[in-house]
Write a structure and sequence with these properties.
Structural class: mainly beta
Strand content: 35-45%
CATH topology of one domain: Ferric Hydroxamate Uptake Protein, Chain A, domain 1
Distance between the termini: 97 Å
CATH superfamily of one domain: TonB-dependent receptor, plug domain
Radius of gyration: 34 Å
CATH class of one domain: Mainly Beta
Strand order of the largest sheet: 19-24-25-26-27-28
Shape: extended
Number of helices: 7
Length: 463
């Protein structure tokens, strides 16, 4: 019994001593101008216990003993550690960090401005963020990285035109794209580069993504004032890499990547009825409706049965049987030189794409050279030259007409196995007609392999 009483007295003494050792420390945290700092983190060093200051900069925290150390930290301020000692009230002043740097961006004519001094909204994206997942077009790399900017690729294939809309359309014109400025030089990026219904891409698609240092998106009418009426829809500033860095000497970078693409989602289509009207099966060149007989296996004379009745069935996989997995191979090598007298950067890039539509492709080869030379301590000369050649052996028609491959696939009758159309020539009549398949829509394999629309587009940019 005495032993239990002694144990209880011992525990009580320990608890009392611990309780007496703990104490509450309060105070106010201000900056070097005497202004209260809300949101300052106050931590007991070596523990996970802490608190933050309120809107008045005040805090209150329980510390275990007088040897405790409180650590005060805040973004843009130098952290401070203070031993509690006998203090119960601690008023702390945090100094502005000497490492703090205001964000500087490039505006019109290459002028550097403090971002917070601008009277309009601006978003800045670094070059390395654009190349985390390599894309064939610099603008598709920008997609999803800037609020209020909608980016869509016409037709969805590599090398297609890219449409950029900042904060919605501002006029009734079909083209509401912003003004693009590359290293201070305005570049037109119209969406009217079509040939026989095929999209040949636009000017920005010729830029090598690996050559981009940063992209700044200027929004609003105040930004337009910098470049005049051409910038009424906003401005996209593209700054290319120059080779200058904090490291002196020669450097070599090599990047290679491969990406694969496949259609994410298909539009639903009916597979219950074959071609015809009012439940009657018909398959003629003038027939384009699919409200004929049910595709329930009933023996029926069809387009490829040579007058013999065969089960009328539905082939539900014509989209996945036709479209394929696309691939893009990207390679880029660059040589950088940085010296006291100046700097340079030579870049060579190559992109090779095979599209999701059979027998479609896109390629782009580019060479870029940027350089600068310090003539005097106060005079620097700089310039750049870029040569790009992009091309394709076949671009698909995207105008929704009869030569549009996607339309042909979707409007094909559900009872036709699209794989049976691959061999589309009748023996001995290769230059006369297609294999038996006579319908209002074209054979998509024939269009993809025989109705070719290719192009080669060299471009030169000197600044």
């Amino acid at each position: 019994m005495k032993k239990k009483i002694l144990q209880m007295l011992f525990l009580l003494a320990v608890f009392t001593t611990s309780a007496l050792a703990q104490k509450t420390v309060t105070g106010v945290v201000t900056d070097d101008l005497g202004e209260a700092l809300p949101g300052v983190t106050v931590m007991i060093a070596g523990t996970s216990t802490g608190t933050v200051t309120n809107l008045s900069g005040a805090f209150s925290i329980e510390v275990p003993d007088e040897n405790s150390i409180l650590k005060f930290s805040f973004i843009g301020m130098e952290a401070q550690e203070v031993i509690v000692g006998s203090q119960t009230v601690m008023n702390i002043t945090l100094a502005t960090s000497s490492l703090q740097m205001d964000e500087v961006i490039i505006t019109a004519l290459g002028i550097s401005r403090d971002k917070k001094s601008l009277g309009y909204s601006i978003a800045d994206v670094k070059g390395e963020d654009l190349n985390n997942t390599p894309q064939d077009n610099v603008l598709t790399s920008l997609s999803g990285k800037v609020a209020g900017v909608r980016i869509s690729q016409m037709g969805g294939l590599a090398g297609s035109s890219v449409n950029v809309i900042i904060r919605g359309s501002t006029s009734l014109n079909s083209d509401n794209q912003p003004l693009f400025v590359i290293d201070g030089v305005p570049v037109a990026n119209s969406l009217n580069n079509f040939y026989q219904g095929a999209d040949m891409g636009n000017a920005i698609s010729d830029i090598n993504t690996e050559d981009i240092e940063s992209i700044s998106v200027l929004k609003g009418p105040s930004a337009a004032a910098l470049y005049g009426s051409r910038a009424g829809n906003g401005v996209v500033l593209i700054t290319t890499k120059s080779g200058s860095s904090s490291i002196k000497g020669i450097g070599v970078d090599f990047n290679t990547a491969v990406t694969f693409e496949t259609p994410l989602k298909y539009i639903e289509y009916q597979t219950e009825f074959g071609p015809g009207k009012a439940g009657v099966h018909m398959f003629e060149e003038s027939e384009n409706e699919s409200w004929g007989s049910r595709l329930d296996g009933t023996p029926t004379i069809q387009w490829d049965t040579d007058g013999v009745a065969a089960p009328l069935l539905s082939y539900d996989n014509r989209l996945t049987d036709f479209f394929q997995t696309g691939s893009t191979y990207t390679n880029n090598i660059s040589v950088n030189g940085n010296y006291d007298e100046g700097s340079f950067r030579l870049s060579i890039g190559d992109v090779r794409n095979t599209g999701v539509v059979p027998n479609t492709d896109f390629s782009r080869s580019s060479v870029g050279l940027n350089g600068s030379y310090n003539v005097t301590p106060k005079l620097k000369v700089q310039g750049s030259i870029s040569v790009t050649e992009s091309g394709s052996d076949n671009r698909i028609v995207v105008d929704g007409g009869r030569e549009d491959i996607v339309r042909s696939v979707y409007e094909m009758s559900a009872h036709v196995n699209i794989l049976d159309l691959k061999d589309y020539w009748e023996p001995g009549q290769e230059n006369i007609q297609q294999l038996k398949y006579k319908h209002k829509q074209n054979n998509p394999w024939f269009v993809a392999n025989e109705n070719l629309i290719g192009f080669s587009s060299p471009s030169l940019r000197v600044i």
